[in-house]
Specification:
The chain has 372 residues and is an alpha/beta fold. It has twelve helices and 19 strands. It binds pyridoxal-5'-phosphate.
Length: 372
């Protein structure tokens, strides 16, 4: 575990993002997506905070991807809120069925085989169905609807707990898939209804859909993930979401030395562009810094610096033309609440914000703080 590199997660920023997402989504209930260690921000800390601080009228359900995450939420964090497990729960395994039933973990049923197992083994348990509207990843196809309806009727399961679908391209502006998927979901819901199947709840919108203010009637819930942690999901230069990055990735400067133009730094000997100072940070790809961070230009205490040379497993080097000893002793932040800075970082890395967050390894401690 690192002592001098830390991901500080701020409760006040998370709370602002949750409240602003709730308003943006027309005050429909939120199902915060907490999978993949709460998008890298620590499942335990984030889920505990949400579970304790938000009323069921705003957040009544937490979303995770796999049964292990759900088990951790119930048994270790002891969250009270309803849990949906979205993809990986091996419903055919007896021990998983018992865990879901004993601990009130609700599987999101996304194919016919799992629906059959559910109907046989989960009597009186809330049924959550996910439909494929074009993404072709998980979800029951519209052609399978007659069979689904037949099964539901046969098992006298005419009232579903929740119906949902998921967008393939909501992070893209004007992509034709978005309208197509909404039409397809509308048609699936109308077939269910006309066949006498009712549902209590429905959800469809993730971050991109909320940011772009898609319109879809009668949804009861939204399922935001990324935007809750700050970044805008939609790929456009326009600001559609003014979230605060909930974390600061902070480290110290571990060592430094003066260098002259023509000297080199690190593995592969990258040439130093001019006389200046090299600052060594105790972070590397073993902590989740992506190798493409090389050459990223950033700021520290108002000074411009550049990641120079290869990112190593444990260390990274910054070049600066000059720096005072006082500034060198201050913590260096790879990112903070500033969304634009984070956007530039992600752009330089040639990836997306999900990847940047999820790359931070367990060697970096997460510290949960109430106020920035
Ligand atoms: C089914 C489902 N709903 C909601 C989300 C949240 O998406 P986002 O993080 O883009 O808001 C995800 C994330 O992948 C998902 O798989």
């Amino acid at each position: 575990m690192r002592q001098r590199s830390v991901l500080k997660v701020y409760a006040d920023r998370l709370e602002n993002n949750l409240k602003n997402t709730f308003e943006l989504g027309g005050r429909k209930k939120l199902i915060p997506m907490l999978k993949a260690n709460a998008y890298g921000h620590d499942l335990s800390l984030v889920s505990h905070f949400i579970d304790k601080n938000f009323d069921d009228s705003m957040i009544d359900t937490l979303g995770v991807a796999c049964i292990g995450e759900a088990e951790f939420l119930r048994k270790v964090v002891k969250v009270q809120k309803r849990i949906f497990v979205f993809s990986d729960f091996q419903i055919e395994e007896k021990k998983n069925q018992e865990l879901m039933q004993d601990f009130g973990v609700i599987p999101v049923i996304s194919n016919l085989d799992n629906l059959k197992i559910f109907l046989n083994s989960f009597e009186k348990f809330p049924l959550v169905l996910k439909f494929n509207t074009g993404m072709n990843r998980l979800g029951i196809n519209s052609e399978e609807l007659p069979e689904v309806i037949k099964l539901l009727k046969k098992n006298n399961k005419l009232q579903l707990e929740h119906v949902m679908s998921h967008f393939a391209c909501s992070y893209l502006v004007g992509h034709e898939m978005n309208q197509k998927q909404m039409k397809s979901f509308e048609s699936i819901l109308s077939t269910l209804k006309s066949s006498g199947i009712e549902w209590k709840e429905s959800s469809f919108f993730n971050s991109g859909a909320l940011e772009q203010r898609f319109q879809f009637d009668n949804l009861t819930h939204h399922r935001p993930g990324l935007m809750l942690y700050g970044p805008q999901s939609t790929m456009t230069n326009k600001t559609l979401w003014d979230g605060e990055i909930v974390s600061d990735f902070e480290t110290d400067i571990l060592d430094s030395r003066n260098v002259k133009r023509g000297e080199f730094v690190g593995y592969g000997a990258t040439e130093v562009p001019a006389d200046g100072r090299l600052l060594v940070l105790p972070v590397g790809y073993g902590d989740g810094l992506l190798p493409r961070l090389q050459n990223f230009e950033t700021q520290h205490q108002g000074q411009s610096l550049k990641f120079l040379g290869r990112i190593n497993m444990d260390l990274a080097s910054l070049w600066v033309s000059s720096i005072s000893l006082e500034d060198q002793n201050k913590p260096f932040k790879l990112w903070d609440s500033n969304q634009n800075h984070f956007k530039n970082l992600v752009k330089h890395l040639g990836t997306h914000p999900y990847d940047v967050f999820c790359s931070i390894t367990s060697r970096v401690p997460r510290k949960f703080l109430l106020k920035s």
